[in-house]
Amino acid sequence: MNLLLVAPILLPMLTAALCLLAWKSVRVQRWLGVAGSAALLASALALFAEVHGRGIAVSHAGEWAAPFGITLAADLLGALMVVLGGIVGLMVAVYSLGSIDEGRERFGFHPLVQILLMGVCGAFLTGDLFNLYVWFEVLLMASFVLTALGGERAQMEGAIKYVTLNLVSSAIFLAALGLLYGLTHSLNMADVSLRLAKLNYPALENLLAVLFFIAFGIKAAVFPLFFWLPASYHTMPVSVSALFAGLLTKVGVYALIRVFTLVFRDDVEFIKELMLVVACLTMAVGVLGAVAQMEMRRILSFHIVSQIGYMIIGLALMTPLALAGTVFYLAHHIIVKTNLFLVSGAVARATGSFELKKVGGLYAAQPGLALLFLIPALSLAGIPPLSGFWGKYILVKAGLESGQVVLVVAALAVSVFTMISMMKIWSEAFWKPHPLGLTPAPVGLLNGPIAAMAAMTLLIGFGVEPMMQLAQRSAQQLLDPQNYIQAVLEARK
Amino acid sequence: MNTVMALLIGMLYASGMYMVLRRSMVKLIIGLALLSHAANLLIFTMATLRRDRPPLIDEGETALAAPYADPVPQALILTAIVIGFAVSAFAAIMIYRVYQTTGTDDLDQLHTTDS
Fold first, then answer.
1. pTM for this one?
2. Which domain holds residue A434?
3. How many domains are there within chain A?
4. Domain membership flag for residue A43
């Protein structure tokens, strides 16, 4: 049993249990939440160092060798995602100290966040398809309760859409699992990959690929399956929205990457074409939806959809450079998008509203916060030298190398529209005077996580070389899954 | 047996989808439950439906002979049923809360958060 692999799952579970024991004391729960998330980040970094230095880490539950036991495996992508999960978890835990209301804290906000993190880390680390389903359900259950916690009218409306679409997605995932098991008699991803390669049922394989694409596509919010996201993300408290925006759709993207690089490798040309079209439409529809909105969190929610399109581009092109672009974009996007949601919460705290018409005057009152907004906002739009520019640059270059001119034009046009949205928030919330002439209130502690995540954006932007090397190495691992398969099937410890 | 199961699963999927698309919240929950039952039965059918072939290795053999009732999918369904039960329980309470806060059972009335 490799403790490094189990720790990112065990630590949040332990923290959640401790939080439940301290049910009556909100203060204890708060600090447990922060300490638990910090421990998760530390263990994720240790795992990442191990995987980076010594290659793919594998552990089998109960020493049952693959394909019989449940496998936990971390390659560079999985380890990187766990680190990002730890970062988002810690930032949101600290941000919640100053932003979440006591009513929600009394009804289990802190343990739920930890259970969500456990589900997310489990999904990133598992090497077994059915286990992936179970982790999805764990994180969904926690997210359902977090969505509905508080019981405001808008929240309940958002919750019913969120819950329904995610349950439909789970049912499709489960059906696809059943059919895949019937075809291959295995659920271990590495083993399934080997067995599928030996079979020759192109029709069934394409059907399964499409089922998996739909199931994960709903979770990742790609066109035309994204409508639950902009209908629900803006109804929750900012801490919850930021956590979801950073991690949940990205779990869907991660699952897509894993399944379409490891399990379905050949015979799925059909799905590649489909992905290209879906990527284009996801980018375009998401960004156009955002242009029409005048509420900060709605704008940001539509941008999540739009940015998912960029990540699908790399997966659809499936060249080393394109896949590296997807990995880079994932890392950049998780940091930037979480941060933008945190900023929107700070703006609402300072001026009292999320509606752009009702806020203003922040640049004059708090130039520091304005600067902290500009860093992730410009990065999202892709202004050099920030992290988003490099992500888009890599994907556009990969697109041109594959001769996908339409895709490249769409990607560039979408980033112009992204810029328009960000400038809309800038000019309304920061530049124009407050419509009622009020002076924005200070936001105090909320600045901490925002500044830390802005610093990470700058770090990725200026330190693009090591980050790019990391992305390329993990793309290499994804495109040549033999190492992964060997590591899983031959690990005896 | 396989034909019967195929028809049954198909009917469950069809009626589940139909119920999910109705306007009433209660029917939505029933539809979701039907969908998960359909998926469970689908996995069950994948395990080869035979009564006379338990997954036991015959004396003198070292491996299972080909048609046998695979126990793994049944274990999977057990897990899926437990998860489905928890999710249904949560969903039932949630629609009750939605009904309490919004005062309606009609999904078409819940459009204030759409964009």
1. 0.94
2. 270-462
3. 1
4. no
